[in-house]
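Comment thread on ticket #2218

A.B. wrote:
> Attaching the input chain for the structure job we discussed in standup.
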Amino acid sequence: MPDRKPKRDDASGPLAAKTCAACGRTMEWRKSWAKNWDSVKFCSDRCRANAKGKAADQGAELEAEILRLLALRGAGKTICPSEAARSVAAGEPFEPLMEPARAAARRLVAAGTLVITQGGHIVDGSTAKGPIRLRLR
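C.D. wrote:
> Ran it. Output below, let me know if you need it in another format.
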């Protein structure tokens, strides 16, 4: 059965997609957000809670580490988010930092600093599954 209302083709205007301030994922307009879409910053309660405190400090540290590693690697070269997670973990298990590292990468993509690639092709970090690489823009 076809959609009753055609989808909007343009990405501008009041129903344009936004980027979550905490995780960097793309948020699409929802009817439940109709009254306050202009003030929506986070995609979920989890992101709202993690935007403050230790998680925010860790995210800023991961962003800085990603940029530092990319600068060391050189122009046109890539890194894996796990390299930044290992560096920030400093001897501790790095696996719990993997999703925060990917979130930091998505925020840097939203800021226009870097791109996320898979197999050498630029992909959307919000929907990418599997291993990704990070490259400066």
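A.B. wrote:
> Thanks. Noting for the ticket: The first helix runs from residue 45 to 50.
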